[in-house]
């Protein structure tokens, strides 16, 4: 075995999101989010589960942060619940909600953990949802106002800001497929949602720049390399899938234009919604790109409206899958990072999510998860290969810190490096074997392979 070492100053962290862990859905003046409402609709979530209590991080944050410190975690990426701070999404600011995040940030800094704050991780104030949500251009301007409220309170202590989490998933799962809140199926309005999300990023970035000029700002995207079922990477299906999943969210930021293959459709969906100056706002320089990555996508041509491709599973009998049904394919991580390096002039990158869902079991006070350790080793090896090839990867955040509410899957899918016992009324936390392994990685700035 050899010791693999990452560059000096490499950031090691873990990540969560507000709706998935906080709970306290109606405490201390918090307004309803679209997820509070969506999860109560019959048949939307497995077993009828919801995030009303989730991991009760709202009350247990000190305990959780202390555990992070014990595990040598140096940075924590978390998201702020917009309706906790601004119950109706606009106007009135709920001081108790702001106070919670101030206490959270102060506790992190007290424990020498650097906060990376995501301003939007899918929980939109329900009152804004009822006014059209991300189909309404005004939501982007309300998001900018919300950004200003947060940065004015926390900007003296938070130095890394992520505007949005995975706008591709917001568009696809929320407004095309309908599996996520708000559960709409409007494929021919999809690019209107995309544009309004990207506009929200641009407006938010400008507010942060004005209020906290020394802060670092970026956008986190769900990105996957795309391969052809025939191993020919130049097929129309591959180009289409890559444009929809990856370039749609990166070209406007790094090139100031929508991908050529999609441009006419973007304009068609955005009649009257795409304004002069929008692309200049969206493409204002950001400091880093957040990359959430789990698996690759293999596609073949298929006449589905909007998509024109069909994702398929690999044919290899050796292929392995997570409990989410996602292929374990670490080689794709290297391909993705090398493509970003080449296509977008090698931006600074943080891996803001990477991890695996498994059917973890608590036995005799322990959770043994060797498959997760192997997964992290293999994926981190691909990250290191990309770094050695010149990619500017600055940090890695494992998803997730806690077993949490996994959206439409409820609590069955376990991504955490810390087990949460849902049979225990106190939701006892137990670090898994992977957490102990990762603690050593964080301490040593690398691992043996």
Automatic annotation (TrEMBL):
- Give the positions the UniProt entry annotates as the active site: 166, 353
Query: What Gene3D superfamilies does its record include?
Result: Glycosidases (3.20.20.80)
EC number(s) reported in the record = 3.2.1.21
The molecule here is called: Beta-glucosidase
Keyword set, alphabetical order: Carbohydrate metabolism, Cellulose degradation, Glycosidase, Hydrolase, Polysaccharide degradation
A single Gene Ontology CC annotation of this entry is: cytosol
What family is it from? Belongs to the glycosyl hydrolase 1 family.
Q: Which residues form a coiled coil?
A: none
Protein's GO biological process: cellulose catabolic process
Q: Which reaction does it catalyse?
A: Hydrolysis of terminal, non-reducing beta-D-glucosyl residues with release of beta-D-glucose
Return the InterPro entries for the record: GH (IPR017853), GH_1_N_CS (IPR033132), Glyco_hydro_1 (IPR001360), Glyco_hydro_1_AS (IPR018120), Glyco_hydro_1_beta-glucosidase (IPR017736)
Query: Which Pfam families does the record cross-reference, listed alphabetically?
Result: Glyco_hydro_1
The beginning of the lineage is:
Bacteria, Pseudomonadati, Spirochaetota, Spirochaetia, Leptospirales
List ligand-binding residues for substrate. Answer: 20, 121, 165, 294, 399, 406-407
> What GO MF terms are annotated?
beta-glucosidase activity
């Amino acid at each position: 075995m050899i010791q693999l070492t990452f560059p000096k100053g490499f950031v090691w962290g873990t990540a969560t999101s507000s709706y998935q862990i906080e709970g306290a859905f109606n405490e201390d003046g918090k307004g309803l989010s679209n997820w509070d409402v969506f999860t109560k609709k019959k048949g939307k979530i497995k077993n009828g589960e919801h995030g009303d209590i989730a991991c009760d991080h709202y009350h247990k944050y000190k305990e959780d942060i202390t555990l992070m410190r014990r595990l040598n975690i140096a940075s924590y990426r978390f998201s702020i619940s917009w309706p906790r701070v601004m119950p109706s999404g606009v106007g009135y600011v709920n001081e108790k909600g702001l106070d919670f995040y101030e206490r959270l940030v102060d506790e992190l800094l007290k424990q020498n953990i650097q906060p990376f704050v995501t301003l939007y991780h899918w929980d939109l104030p329900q009152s804004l949802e009822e006014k059209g949500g991300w189909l309404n251009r005004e939501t982007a301007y309300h998001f900018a106002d919300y950004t200003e409220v947060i940065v004015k309170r926390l900007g003296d202590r938070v130095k890394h800001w992520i505007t949005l989490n995975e706008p591709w998933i917001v568009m696809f799962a929320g407004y095309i497929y309908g599996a996520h809140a708000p559960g709409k199926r409007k494929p021919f309005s999809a690019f209107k949602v995309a544009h309004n999300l990207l506009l929200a990023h641009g407006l938010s970035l400008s507010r942060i720049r004005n209020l906290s000029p020394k802060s670092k700002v970026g956008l986190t995207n769900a990105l996957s390399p795309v391969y052809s079922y025939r191993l020919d990477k130049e097929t129309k299906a591959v180009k289409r899938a890559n444009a929809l999943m990856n370039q749609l969210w990166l070209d406007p930021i790094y090139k100031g234009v929508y991908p050529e293959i999609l441009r006419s459709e973007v304009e068609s969906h955005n009649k009257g919604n795409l304004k002069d100056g929008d692309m200049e706002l969206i493409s204002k320089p950001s400091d880093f790109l957040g990359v959430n990555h789990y698996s690759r996508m293999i596609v073949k041509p298929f006449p589905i409206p909007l998509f024109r491709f069909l994702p398929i599973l690999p044919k290899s009998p050796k292929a392995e899958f997570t409990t989410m049904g996602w292929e374990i394919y670490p080689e794709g991580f290297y391909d993705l990072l090398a493509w970003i390096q080449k296509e977008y002039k090698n931006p600074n990158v943080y891996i803001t999510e990477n991890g695996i869902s498994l059917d973890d079991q608590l036995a005799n006070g322990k959770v043994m998860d060797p498959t997760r350790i192997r997964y992290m080793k293999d994926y981190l090896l691909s990250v290191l290969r990309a770094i050695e090839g010149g990619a500017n990867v600055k940090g890695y955040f494992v998803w997730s810190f806690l077993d949490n509410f996994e959206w439409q899957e409820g609590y069955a899918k376990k991504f955490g490096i810390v087990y949460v016992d849902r049979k225990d009324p106190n939701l006892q936390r137990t670090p898994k074997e992977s957490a102990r392994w990762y603690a050593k990685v964080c301490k040593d700035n690398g691992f043996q392979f």
